Amino acid sequence: xxxxxxxxxxxxxxxxxxxxxxxxxxxxxxxxxxxxxxxxxxxxxxxxxxxxxxxxxxxxxxxxxxxxxxxxxxxxxxxxxxxxxxxxxxxxxxxxxxxxxxxxxxxxxxxxxxxxxxxxxxxxxxxxxxxxxxxxxxxxxxxxxxxxxxxxxxxxxxxxxxxxxxxxxxxxxxxxxxxxxxxxxxxxxxxxxxxxxxxxxxxxxxxxxxxxxxxxxxxxxxxxxxxxxxxxxxxxxxxxx
Length: 241
Hints:
Layout: H1 2-15, H2 26-39, H3 42-69, H4 71-75, E1 82-84, E2 90-96, H5 101-116, E3 120-126, H6 132-143, H7 150-159, H8 166-175, H9 180-186, H10 190-205, E4 213-216, E5 219-222, H11 227-239
Parallel strand pairs: 2-3
Antiparallel strand pairs: 1-3, 2-4, 4-5
Helix pairs in contact: 1-2, 1-3, 6-7, 6-10
Organism: Litoreibacter albidus
InterPro entries: DSBA-like_thioredoxin_dom, ScsC_N, Thioredoxin-like_sf, Thioredoxin_CS, Thioredoxin_domain
Keywords: Disulfide bond, Isomerase, Oxidoreductase, Redox-active center, Signal
């Protein structure tokens, strides 16, 4: 960034004088640039701001392209659980880890959003990135679909005090009246591994590096957000038609 700023500053400096870069020696050019920057320090800031704007736009364009290319995998993957209204007019995708503190903090806002909007469809993508305990919890949650318990299990894990690990996962399964032997067997089902693998591929393509992360229509929203912001993003999607 500094190199770009200096190059931009040089271009701006030379544009203010009749002399060209070819007419200056290396020392003269350096002295000229340094003197101009000392007299006009805002030149460097303007150059840095220009670079930042270009980088942000490039990242936004790249994210849009990736979202468009992966729309079906993100929103219509049969291996991804859906909560809320399965026929809702707005689809939101959430990537999460059961041992992510920010995910747990955001959980109540997500639940409030679902409770306040009967026409919202939420795709839940298990993305266990915080160790083997998280992987175990994600596999168990996905395996619970075979017993029709995914949403209950997901909610219980998100509200669990302490880490999600083998002991807490099996305890919660028992509390929900699940067959834990079947649950453990179903954790090895190919669709469970396929879901997690797809999550890894999607997040790599989207250049995500932490949980939670949300997709609201064409907007990629990394990090925890609050209920009001979620509502506003959903409203933007509906307003856009």
